[in-house]
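Retro notes (design track)

What went well: tokenization of the new backbones is finally stable.
What didn't: we kept losing track of which sequence belonged to which structure.
Fix going forward: every design gets posted as structure first, then sequence, in one message. First example under the new rule, 354 residues:
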């Protein structure tokens, strides 16, 4: 049962401006440790799968950076999308690459920009999920909720399955606070982590059944895998594939679903407000980085400084970030709105700061 990690390294990470930019989005930032999130994602798979069996999916702007960060990655395992077409086409591309070598090989689809505190527990959960996937299920991981979170989608869990895992009753969009509270109190719901495990042949069959509009394009790509014509076919075909998420295109329609609950200290590190989930805080709840950062009478702040002095006095629950050429100041509870700054800079054509 060979495992093939597929690490999704696309995305712009606009909620981490000014640290994240077009050329250096969230997955390339050392937000949870001294290493970039992408490097941490690969490292926590050690002992579960080898780098030679790992695939990275990203866009052309980030290909060299991704290859540099993942030591030992075979050149053919860097799948570069000509254009961004959401997660369904990206995963289909990876499934074709795996199926060409190992039709029943198991894909472990992982975001490149999440954090896991318990790497051993994470690997154990993935091993169990792979066993369920080997029997023909499309498996997704659900995280046991620790709070009524409105920033995540949810999975409603059903009865246990004979092959392992649980039935999926429904996928739910990000809820309002009252609905999130009801979800958590019911004990029937898990956070949707966006982590998927399935055999290459099973997910390709699912694409054929639930997204038939992709069939012609995927067949053309399948015939070109490993051949000199690959680059040309990819450039011609991939932009024409529908821009659809794997959740909407397949997972919400398929009948052979299974969800596996997990509790391994997961965080999607969705904004600066999530930094205290992945980095230690001081006695006053402040998370501080930067050699010249100084805090006086501050509580619950996230401070990320550059080389110059950055001083805060008397602030509570604030985010202050100095990237060297730009400064961000925002209340923690408004940190999701940082993307609006990026939109404003785009409107003003301030491309050098994007």
């Amino acid at each position: 049962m060979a495992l093939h990690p597929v690490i999704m390294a696309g995305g712009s990470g606009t909620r981490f401006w000014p640290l994240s930019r077009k050329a250096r989005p969230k997955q390339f930032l050392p937000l949870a440790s001294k290493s970039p999130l992408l490097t941490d994602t690969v490292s926590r798979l050690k002992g579960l799968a080898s780098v030679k069996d790992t695939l990275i999916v990203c866009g052309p702007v980030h290909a060299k950076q991704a290859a540099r960060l993942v030591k030992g990655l075979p050149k053919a395992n860097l799948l570069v999308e000509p254009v961004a077409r959401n997660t369904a086409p990206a995963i289909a591309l990876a499934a074709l690459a795996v199926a060409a070598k190992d039709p029943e090989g198991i894909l472990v689809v992982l975001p490149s920009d999440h954090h896991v505190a318990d790497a051993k527990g994470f690997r154990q959960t993935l091993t169990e999920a792979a066993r369920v996937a080997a029997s023909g299920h499309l498996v997704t991981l659900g995280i046991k909720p620790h709070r009524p979170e409105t920033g995540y989608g949810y999975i409603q869990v059903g009865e246990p399955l004979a092959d392992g895992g649980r039935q999926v009753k429904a996928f739910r969009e990000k809820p309002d606070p009252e609905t999130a509270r009801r979800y958590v109190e019911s004990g029937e719901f898990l956070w949707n982590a966006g982590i998927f495990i399935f055999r290459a042949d099973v997910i390709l069959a699912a694409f054929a059944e639930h997204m038939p509009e992709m069939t012609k394009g995927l067949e053309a790509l399948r015939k070109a895998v490993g051949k000199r014509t690959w680059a040309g076919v990819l450039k011609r075909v991939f932009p024409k594939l529908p821009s659809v998420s794997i959740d909407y295109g397949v997972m919400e329609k398929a009948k052979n679903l299974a969800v596996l609950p997990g509790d391994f200290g997961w965080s999607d590190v969705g904004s600066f407000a999530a930094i205290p989930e992945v980095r230690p805080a001081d006695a006053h709840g402040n998370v501080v980085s930067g050699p010249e950062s100084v805090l006086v009478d501050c509580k619950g702040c996230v401070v990320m400084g550059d080389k110059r002095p950055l001083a805060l006095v008397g602030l509570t629950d604030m985010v202050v970030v100095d990237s060297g050429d730009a400064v961000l100041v925002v209340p923690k509870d408004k940190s999701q709105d940082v993307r609006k700054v990026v939109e404003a800079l785009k409107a003003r054509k301030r491309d050098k700061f994007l």
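Added context from the reviewer: The two ends are 43 Å apart (CA to CA).
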